[in-house]
Amino acid sequence: MDDPKRTVEQLLVHHRDRLQARIRWMMGAQARRAGDSGDFLGELSQRILEDAASLEWRDSEHFLALATRMARNLIVDRVRRPRVRRFESFTARLCLGDVPEPNADTPSQAAVAGEDVERVLAALEQLPEEHQQVIELRHFEGLGFSGIGERMGRSENAVQLLHARAITALGRRLRGAD
User: Fold this and answer.
1) Which of 5, 21, 75, 133 is the most buried (most CB within 10 A)?
2) For residue 153, what is the domain's CATH number?
3) 141 is in which domain, residue-wise?
4) DSSP string, the chain
């Protein structure tokens, strides 16, 4: 049997870029003041390596989902929930379900929230870069269309159209239509 710590190290290296992007999406501006996504990724990696012997996962994608949930908890601990609440509200609207707050009343509610967050993050990763960027700026950074236009070098109308296309594409991915 493989050494759990070595296996975890390999999985962390394999998923490094995806985890960093997911952390950045969940963090937002407030958490970036508490540290950059690389700091969060380093702390997450350290926690995962410390717990390597007790962690259980089925495959590489399940490990990524587990690491994403641990990253979410780390961010919540560091910035005390406002950013994650906004992200989970966005997730709930996209999944068309009632996703509970991070401090859910029951373990099953917390599990559902974590699964929906994972689904949205996985779907976001499949979108073109400009779709990811417009969704991040609008829903995670809270910028208006004019501010997004300035950042992306586009007109406000072009950004509104791009945003509509990005949300539609994300919804299709979540429904499994793509």
Assistant:
1) 75
2) 1.10.10
3) 128-178
4) ---HHHHHHHHHHHTHHHHHHHHHHHHHHHHHHH--HHHHHHHHHHHHHHTGGG---SSHHHHHHHHHHHHHHHHHHHH-SHHHHHHHHHHHHHHTS-PPPTT-SSHHHHHHHHHHHHHHHHHHHHS-HHHHHHHIIIIIS---HHHHHHHHT--HHHHHHHHHHHHHHHHHHHHT--
